[in-house]
Amino acid sequence: MPSQSVCFPAKLAHGHVTWLATHGVKRIWFPCIPKEEKVFKESDNTFACPVVAGYPEVVRLNADLPAGVEPQVLTPFVLVSDKKVVKRVMLKYFPQLDGAAVDRAYDAARDALADWKQRLEAEGEKVLSEAQAAGKTVVLIALIALSRKFVILDSNASPAKIAALASATLALGATYWLLRKRGDRAAETSEHDPSSSQ
Q1: Which positions ≥6 away from 173 have C-beta within 8 Å?
Q2: Residue among 45, 44, 12, 13 at smallest CA distance from 31
Q3: What is the pLDDT of residues 19-32, one digit of tens each?
Q4: For the whole model, what pTM was predicted?
Q5: 126-140: string of b/e by CB count within 10 Å (b at 16+)?
Q6: Which of 14, 28, 80, 140 has the fewest C-beta atoms under 10 angstroms from its C-beta?
Q7: pLDDT reported for residue 149
Q8: Residues contacting residue 42 through CB under 8 Å, at least 6 positions apart
Q9: How far apart are CA 39 and CA 125, in angstroms?
Q10: Listed residue (91, 97, 59, 86) closest to 75, CA to CA
Q11: pLDDT tens profile 11-62
């Protein structure tokens, strides 16, 4: 593995590709996903994190496989939110597939994803309601994406260590927010007063 600091899903991908290859799988479909679907209409863009966007290439080029095990790892760049693109790429790499079957599989996958999101949201609401009814304090951490390295902790992680990592995450988030606010304010000032940018 090229980096010990990469997120857990990337580490898992290395192991999964190795497992598949050592169990006789000759072709592995592992697309790069540069963009995802727009979740909020206010979103400026839908770029995926660099790991999702291009890590399959890293795995393909750095898989730690036993001698003589050389599967074909297919890593095309695919916009999974676009059914036509997915179909075109699938039929390019798997010409034996039926186009109508690819359409049905895509629709079934989208339905399954929507169902999973709905169940996840319902479970979150349930946990929150139960905690509130029991008078428990609920801490929601939305900044975890800033520090994926903190997600997987070693087995001797103490509550103090977790609190310290959470504090660092919060500090990073606050710093980012303050810098962005300062940048927004500077842009607004220069927009109203052209002489301030000289």
Answers
A1: 143, 146
A2: 13
A3: 899 999 999 999 99
A4: 0.60
A5: eeeeeeeeeeeeeee
A6: 140
A7: 46
A8: none
A9: 19
A10: 59
A11: 788 888 888 999 999 999 999 988 888 777 777 778 877 777 888 898 888 8
